[in-house]
């Protein structure tokens, strides 16, 4: 039986991540500040990649992703009726939350173009959405930050607008040498709206 992941807010010891390669886990998003899940919170079933991908850190469930999932569930990170992109998705927990209970219109979960990462991510999407048939459309795609952004935006080609209303990222800024590439992807893929910001200096994306 899959292990239940502790609440992102609970426990005296705050572990930064959970799980081992190949482990099956279940996470229930929490209301922010709550000690436990709401009885109606969805159970999101995820499996970690089999290989210990230490250079990419996709073999764990990271607390930042859990907190982002909680924020989406609670409405603090509002993705209702939005085209949503997750970069560096790993297990895809925030993207799955956006699709299952966040009210998103369409969700794309991306990570580095590695077979084991993408296979685990696709399996998590299939498994979770089979348990929750009333969900937003969600697709998985490879994306290396700063490269071939058109391949990602093309996934919205049949939709309007053709850029994403919200981009989710959790535990993606710890590697400073990747910041420029990450900002390049965000700047290219985030819709130009009055509230849009790039992370480097929070300047508006509008011209």
Q: Number of DSSP strands?
A: 9
State the CATH superfamily name: Vaccinia Virus protein VP39
Low-confidence stretches: 202-207
Shape: globular
The computed structural class is alpha/beta
Strand content: 15-25%
Mean pLDDT: 82
Tell me the strand order in the biggest sheet: 8-7-6-9
Q: What is the N-to-C order of secondary-structure elements (H for helix, E for strand)?
A: EEEEEHEHEHEHEH
CATH topology: Rossmann fold
Task: Give the helix tally.
Answer: 5
Q: Quickly name the level 1 CATH class.
A: Alpha Beta
How would you characterize the overall build of this protein?
There is one protein chain. This protein is α/β, with parallel strands linked by helices and 207 residues long. It has a single domain, classed as Rossmann fold (3-Layer(aba) Sandwich). It is 26% helix and 15% strand. The protein has a four-stranded parallel β-sheet with strand order 8-7-6-9, with helices on one face. α3 links the parallel β7 and β8. α1 packs parallel to α2. The radius of gyration is 16 Å and the shape is globular.
Brief write-up:
It is built from five helices and nine strands. The strands form three sheets. Strands 8-7-6-9 form a four-stranded parallel β-sheet, with helices on one face. A three-stranded mixed β-sheet has the order 1-3-4. The protein has a two-stranded antiparallel ribbon with strand order 2-5.
């Amino acid at each position: 039986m899959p292990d239940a992941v502790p609440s992102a807010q609970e426990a005296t010891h705050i572990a930064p991540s959970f799980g081992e390669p190949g482990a099956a886990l279940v996470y229930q998003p929490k209301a922010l500040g709550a000690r436990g899940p709401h009885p109606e919170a969805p159970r999101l079933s995820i499996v970690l990649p089999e290989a210990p991908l230490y250079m990419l850190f996709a073999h764990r469930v990271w607390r930042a992703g859990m907190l982002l999932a909680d924020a989406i569930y609670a409405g603090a990170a509002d993705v209702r009726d939005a085209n949503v992109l997750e970069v560096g998705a790993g297990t895809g927990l925030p993207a799955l939350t956006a699709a299952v209970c966040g009210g998103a219109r369409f969700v794309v979960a991306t990570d580095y173009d590695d077979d084991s990462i993408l296979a685990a991510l696709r399996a998590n999407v299939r498994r979770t959405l089979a348990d929750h048939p009333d969900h937003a459309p969600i697709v998985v795609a490879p994306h290396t930050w700063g490269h071939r952004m058109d391949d990602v935006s093309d996934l919205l080609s049949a939709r309007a607008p053709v850029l994403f209303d919200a981009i989710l990222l959790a535990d993606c800024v710890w590697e400073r040498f990747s910041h420029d590439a990450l900002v390049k992807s965000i700047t290219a893929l985030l819709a130009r709206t009055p509230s849009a910001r790039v992370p480097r200096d929070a300047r508006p994306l509008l011209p």
